[in-house]
Specification:
With 328 residues, the protein is of the alpha/beta class. The chain has helices spanning 13-26, 39-47, 55-67, 90-93, 95-102, 120-131, 138-160, 191-194, 203-209, 222-230, 239-254, 269-285, 300-319; strands at 4-7, 30-33, 73-75, 78-81, 109-110, 113-115, 183-189, 212-215, 259-265, 289-294. The chain binds iron/sulfur cluster. Keywords: Kinase, Transferase.
């Protein structure tokens, strides 16, 4: 019988989905992804998570519930580190335990630990552990892993070339026809926040509808991001933080854009540090900057108003020599 593996459309999904999908499908499993985030998923996530959790973690719980009764396993790895000497947010590390304690009667979780701070040998052990839920054949698992890596590198290349993974739908091509953009804005933040259309209140679509070209951190190669992140006074140990700051520095220094929008999560410790650095940079560089802090109570009308005001400010500055605050 075919093993059904459920992958929740949240958190690391936006970074690694093609890798895990290819891996499990190559092993003969059926991969089922939870629905695109909607009000029911959000409400259920909020009801089944501790109040202190950030919005992306609450949404993730909603996605687990969405899969609960239709799969044999739910994929919730324990992600400690994805780059050497760096760490992911503590909420990723404790995610399997958090999910298990918050939601009763779940199918078994695939909760293998991912930790790139361990040796290469241990990485292969990790891969075999993930594969063992479908087969015990190590050659099959190794081949599936190599195929999955290839798919993952292609996905990253695709994004570098301009593809924006809205809702993580790999096959989806640009929905809005290419038009002559009047401005270019960098949208920066955690992947699971900016590419989740519901969680981001359709920010990218709204910008494109106003003839704004959107650039994202994934369009910059990791070496550039790392070099820039290394130039910071203090080392940033959180992988997401490094990427966000490196990308913001790149876009600010290259003056390729008219402004930066940073989507942050209320209650996120990493975001509170980054927001502060961003605000200082934007004052120093004169780069228009809008911070949107979102949680489950944020009203879309308020976000729309701030967005319109920000775009108006950019337009106004370009014709009035920039004598306006850069800080939206
Ligand atoms: S980094 Fe922030 S937004 Fe992401 S899971 Fe951790 S607390 Fe939540």
């Amino acid at each position: 019988m075919t093993v059904k593996i459920g992958i929740p459309r949240g958190l690391w999904f936006y970074d690694y989905y093609p890798l895990w999908k290819t891996f499990y499908e190559s092993l003969g499993a059926e991969v089922i992804v939870s629905d695109i985030t909607n009000k029911v998923i959000l409400d259920q996530g909020v009801r089944n998570t501790v109040d202190e959790a950030c919005l992306p973690v609450k949404i993730f719980h909603g996605h687990v519930l969405n899969l609960k009764d239709r799969v044999d396993y739910i994929f919730v790895p324990k992600m400690m580190s994805v780059y050497k000497n760096e760490y992911i947010c503590p909420k990723f590390c404790g995610l399997p335990e958090m999910v298990q304690h918050s939601i009763p009667n779940l199918p078994p979780l695939i909760d293998t630990e991912i930790n790139f701070n361990k040796s290469r040998k241990s990485l292969m052990k990790t891969v075999f552990s993930f594969g063992s839920y479908v087969t015990k054949n190590p050659i099959k698992i190794r081949n599936a892993y190599l195929k999955a890596l290839e798919e993952y590198y292609q996905y990253k290349e695709h994004m570098k070339n301009g593809y924006i993974p809205i809702n993580g739908i790999y096959e989806e091509k640009e929905q809005i026809p290419h038009i002559n953009y009047r401005r270019r804005i960098a949208v920066i933040g955690h992947t699971y926040h900016i590419y989740d259309s519901y969680g981001s209140m359709n920010l990218i679509k709204k910008l494109k509808q106003q003839a704004i070209d959107v650039v994202i951190p994934e369009m910059i190669d990791m070496k550039t991001i790392n070099d820039l992140a290394n130039s910071l006074e203090k080392k940033m140990f959180w992988s997401y933080g490094r990427k966000i700051l490196g990308a913001a520095l790149h876009y600010t220094e290259n003056k390729e854009i008219d402004g930066i929008i940073y989507i942050s999560s209320f209650g996120c410790g990493i975001d509170s540090v980054i927001e502060d650095i961003f605000e200082r940079w934007s004052r120093r560089s004169g780069m228009p900057f809008l911070l949107l802090t979102i949680d489950e109570h944020t009203g879309e009308a308020g976000v729309n108003t701030r967005l319109e005001a920000f775009i108006d400010m950019i337009d106004w500055r370009s014709s009035n020599e920039g004598n306006l605050s850069t800080h939206g």
